[in-house]
Amino acid sequence: MKYRYSLITLLALSSLNAQDVSLDAISVTATKIFKGTKEVSQSISVVDEKTIGDKNILNIQEAIENIPGVNAESSTNSPSPRLIIRGAGLKARYGVREVMVMKDGVPLTDPDSFTRFDFIDMQDVASIEVQKGPGSINAANATGGVIQLITKSVFEEDYNRIKLGFGDDGQRNLNLKLRGALGENDFTSVTFSKRKIDNEWRDNNEFDATQFSLKYGHLFEDDSSIETELSYTQSNMNIPTSMTASEFATFESTGEQHDTSAQFQNSSRDSKILALNVRYEKEVGDTTYKPRFYFNTWDHFHPVTGIINESDNNSVYGTDLEFDYNHNLFGDKASLVAGVTLKADITKDSRKYKYAHYVTLPASGWPFTPYISETLSDVKGDLAQTEDSTTTLYGAYIMETFSPLNGLTCDFSTRVDKLSFDISGNEITAYDYSSKNYITGVGLYTTDKSYTLLSSRVGATYKLTETTNMYVSIATANQAPTTSELGENESLEKSTSLNYEVGIKTRAKNISYDLAVYQNDVDDEIIQILDSNGNSIYDNAGKTQKRGLEFNGVYKLSQNMNIGGSYAFSDFKFKKFNEKVGAGLVSRDSNYLPYIPKNQYSLFAAFNMSNGFKTRVTAKSWGSYYMDNANTKKYEGFKFVTNLMVGYGYKSHNIQLNIKNMTNKYYAMEALKNVYGNESYKAGAPMSSMLTYSYLF
């Protein structure tokens, strides 16, 4: 049973950070071996289980929104975040791109870098690790970094739990967790979650989800183990429209958004996901083998601008065959991690439809062609397009960590992946953004394109004192375009990021902090351009340069109280970029990238009494940012959007009240301007509250 208890110990250590600042948080994924974050030669943040529970986190953006260098916002209070790490992900029209998301070592991100966050039940997550920047051996086709979700292992001794939550905006939450031993070496757990929110302050903003997970684990007599998880998610998410400048002014004065002038009022994403993964671990001498196998199948109904997407035959197959080898090098302990990856994303008979019910109006000028002014429902009309696609990724990775001198640790890593797209379809009808109506499609089409992607990093950590380490790293990685981006611009090239970083990390008795300074040079960065009708056009920028400083710290004021904060300074510019405006090109050289605030900071205070009383206050602020590539207008950002938690725990009972945006600030979580001067805004959520009761048994 040695394996079982060592695993439990490591899982417990991985949850220690801001709440127990005398001990270093444990990273279980950055180098694929257990290591304190102070020893990792890159910027990494860990969100622990207590913080997840205290903040009553139900969506991933709420967990990571205060990490410096991370821009995480949602306009729906549902799993649909705008997620950007050090500028990577800025191009995403929807969802998340350029960031690798994993759960227990299994990628949730598709080979072309798209992630479905409705996959994730945050109520089963024990901790979250965020690795920032390119070069991670975990990141295949992701230059922004890696988000690793670590769920509660079936081997970890844990209480059973029932959790109930009720709040305004029609919020309802139910979570049930059962875990038990089937025998001396067999363990199982079941998790069930159901969530619902009406969000009546906006039109078309309802969300509900039902999630189920069954885990099984077996410990063999030779101390090897196998752990499996079967999960199912059914998610129904309406997606509200953006606002014009005048409509946003109304929201700023009333806190509500109704009857917007947007054409497509019925956007949504209804999905079902069935997933299975198997993880095996066996130690043979100095080598530990860790093969992983995974499969998921999903379908969705997804009305968006102009088109209704429906797909019910999608499968993802993958494996990661990893081994760790402990050995001696330069007279000291060293470790080698290596493996191969294979993943395929197969979609058959994906379909697009016209909207069945919409209003047309005559255009104001010649030739007076009617245009769609608004949709009336999300009912499917005539078939517009069919498509089959296969996206494959295979590659290999290796990382060596060793200590050539006392107090100095070095690591070298690289991975090479081959990404291939095979797409064929028949476009019968297309939505034309310029005429705002349907036109004849291109007919039969094919796309067959491949990219070779390199990701490498060299890092070193030096022990300055017993409590403080300094690190340096140089990393590079490629980013390929996505399937949808290639559909709009087949000539897109892969981008290349080169990142230089230096930092200091301290873990002392009463204080813990991380300071990082970096420069990330990107060639051929894929960026998004908005035309006069809001259409997203993708192109390769010649070169961008991203310079930044990040600080995150916690101070233990007393045995019961921690205070802390974070700050990020982001100086992101186009070094060479000509933007298409109408029929011509306009230079944007030396302009700032849009949407990224130059200054971003947060503060928190957490108070925990021995009698069970607890409270936590967190406030975040975004400075101003440019709304367009031309840098013609700024949005002033927001200041001190504050969340409050007050709770009390007694034996097996816990009750807490969480109030988000307690000062009820009305602000934009996103403000954009296209090349023709049209502005669009998405609202941040106003004040909401939820009362939660949980019982452990």
Automatic annotation (TrEMBL):
Residues 38-146 form the TonB-dependent receptor plug domain. Gene3D superfamilies: TonB-dependent receptor, beta-barrel domain (2.40.170.20), TonB-dependent receptor, plug domain (2.170.130.10). The keyword Transmembrane applies. It is a multi-pass membrane protein. CDD domains: ligand_gated_channel. GO terms for molecular function: siderophore uptake transmembrane transporter activity. Keywords: Cell outer membrane, Ion transport, Iron, Iron transport, Membrane, Receptor, Signal, TonB box, Transmembrane, Transmembrane beta strand, Transport. It is found in: Cell outer membrane. It comes from the Bacteria. Residues 1-20 form the signal peptide. GO terms for cellular component: cell outer membrane. Pfam families: Plug, TonB_dep_Rec_b-barrel. InterPro entries: Beta-barrel_TonB (IPR000531), Beta-barrel_TonB_sf (IPR036942), Plug_dom (IPR012910), Plug_dom_sf (IPR037066), TonB-dep_rcpt-like (IPR039426). Residues 247-661 form the TonB-dependent receptor-like beta-barrel domain. Belongs to the TonB-dependent receptor family. This is TonB-dependent receptor. It comes from Candidatus Sulfurimonas baltica.
